[in-house]
Amino acid sequence: MNGKLGNSLLLWQNHPCVVIGRHQNPWLECDISYLERNKIPIARRKSGGGAVYHDLGNLNCTFYTSRKEYDRPKNLKLICSAVQDMWPDLDIYPTDRDDIEMFGYKVSGTASKLDREHAYHHLTLLVNADLLNMSMALKNKINIESKSTKSIRSQVTNLTCSMAPSLNMESIIDCISRKVSPQSKVEIIDPNEVEGVKYEREKIKSWNWIYGFSPAFTIVKDFNTSLGLHHLTIKVVKGKISDFKLLHKEINYPFLNEILIGSDFRPDVIEQTLEKFIGHELCELIIGYITGSYDDL
């Protein structure tokens, strides 16, 4: 963060993507196989908090201030007040967890980051997002043991409803902008022209940042094949396999650990190795589990 922006409110949008918090585990927070099939990217932000889904029906609001002026409750109240000024029938309010709810349903999640001099507080605002896609994207199918920050699941809804027929993305942006200051200067920014954005974009798109930054975790699973019961244990540290054990009462696979240790925890890497040594059936089951393809494995 730097001080070039001054006190600013940035309103911005993304094409469909899932954004996880700094200390989260993407394998635990979302259905990676679903995201890959639907070409929905994952991003890891530098602030904490839980996983969120973005699309063009969601508005992101970032309050950029000095550390001294950082004030989450004030920002949340401003958003709620802006909406109610325009649509007084909407029962919208901040919660004790610094979320925003409407009629008991969550419409906004929040996170922040502070350094020595500056701070930013950002939040989502569900205007008319694709809630089905959100539900599918944020559905975890893998049993993982991890100390990573886990998202708190909530029932969500969009701001658009029969009680506010004129509410849409354009009107929301307009009412928030006017609430900040009737005389405020609204400036359209091309992110490609902002200093440092291209460098940061490449950095946060890297596999090491999105996956490798995840806290250590362990996958444990028992499953049956035509050869009988197998026990699988995979330990992953910094996105790389640190231990891989596949046990069977009559068959030993000690060489798999030697081959896979140090490899990225990527299904394609694991699959290429397993296919060579343990056959298609067992390989398919293991890959199906670690990608979430098999719900009942």
From TrEMBL:
GO terms for biological process: protein lipoylation. One of its GO terms (cellular component) is mitochondrion. Gene3D superfamilies: Bira Bifunctional Protein, Domain 2, CO dehydrogenase flavoprotein, C-terminal domain. GO terms for molecular function: lipoyltransferase activity. Pathway: Protein modification; protein lipoylation via exogenous pathway; protein N(6)-(lipoyl)lysine from lipoate: step 2/2. It comes from the Eukaryota. Residues 3-168 form the BPL/LPL catalytic domain. InterPro entries: aa-tRNA-synth_II/BPL/LPL, BPL_LPL_catalytic, LipoylTrfase_LipoateP_Ligase. Pfam families: LplA-B_cat. Belongs to the LplA family. This is BPL/LPL catalytic domain-containing protein. It comes from Dimorphilus gyrociliatus.
